[in-house]
Hints:
Elements: E1 2-5, H1 14-17, E2 24-27, E3 74-75, E4 81-82, E5 84-88, H2 117-131, E6 135-139, H3 149-166, E7 174-179, H4 184-194, E8 198-202, H5 208-215, H6 220-232, E9 239-244, H7 252-261, E10 265-270, H8 288-295, E11 301-305, E12 314-318, E13 324-328, E14 341-344, E15 349-351, E16 359-361, H9 362-367, H10 372-384, H11 409-412
Parallel strand pairs: 5-6, 5-14, 6-7, 7-8, 8-9, 9-10, 10-13
Antiparallel strand pairs: 1-2, 3-4, 11-12, 12-13, 14-15, 15-16
Amino acid sequence: MSHIVGVRTPGTTPGDLHGRERQVAVRWTSGRTATPLDYSRLMAAVTLGIPSVRGVPRRAVTPAGRPRPDTPLLLDRYGRVARDLRVSITTACSLRCTYCMPAEGLPLVPRDELMTPGEIGRLVGIGVRDLGIRDIRFTGGEPLMRRDLEQIIAAARSAADDGLAATGSTDRVRIAMTSNALGLDKRVDGLVAAGLDRVNVSLDTVDRQAFATLTRRDRLDDVLTGVRAALAAGLAPVKINAVLLPETLAGAADLLAWAVEHGCTLRFIEEMPLDADGRWTRDDVVSAADLLDVLGRRFTLTPAGREDPSAPAEEWLVDGGPATVGVIASVTRSFCGACDRTRLTAEGTVRSCLFGNEETDLKALLRSGAGDEAVADAWRAAMWAKPRAHGSDALELSDDAFADTVRSMGAIGG
């Protein structure tokens, strides 16, 4: 069968492929596509830790045994192309959300093992110029814990602009950040001046007591101050990410009403087994259906689909619009088949899949003096080996099953 991917034809550049990569078909005969799977049984516990870094994965053929097509893009064996880069820059955080970190926090990455602004800029430049990256998001931990965040954003903006110009494109690479917004009001102007385009804020409830219990910190007012500062600085649309939890479900409608009132775009996310304490169970997952039932008692919700096929959130118009609410049903409605993400950890390793433990150390290549071409090739090889779904190539997994991962979300980066 045919899998449509971006294969470069003679005389083209990665920039030429943007927007038309699906015009070229690569054929192999396995029939193993990356469509969402029909899972029902398995569940994996998650343990906290930092894995040993592996070298370039050796899975260098398609499931049917054919070699990787000659394309500069970040293509995997199931025909998906990664264009969305997530860059974690720290494991430190100013909150201690129960679904993300233990009360004492995560082990901190030593300063000399973190990527520097220059190293991040170089990897961004390679990604945009040579690999087709078009969206960049900085994550953590909490990015605002890095004192040099403005320098990181500036290095990424310069490298992204130069990289895109080298392809002949006049487009702009979007640079965004996911943050808890604590202290954002004090730094937002500098971040915008450095080149930040958008911000997503992690906020699960607007009930002060519920917030303090969930985050182990009584800082809701400070978070809301940060959100207002982002809006005032023009970082629109400000998206609010809320993890669906049994203890906050009753307040979900209040959170949506607050988001609509303040002009924010709210997205609810089903909790995945990436908590540091390993307490996640499938029985505790609040599903998209549960949420829509609660919201539907207060609002009229009209399905609006997805803004693009690779977007994880299914959207609904709220009371006829224009306001919308999104639901990322990462457990009950798997969207692995459309995944277009590649991830860099704070230590500079590539993770092809949120739940995959294989990592390729690009920072080590940079520090050993490797050229851009060698770094790009290692990155391509890492993404070629991307698992089919939820960290596994197995066909028999259920759609709410996840492979074991030795990193929690706070250590990987959201």
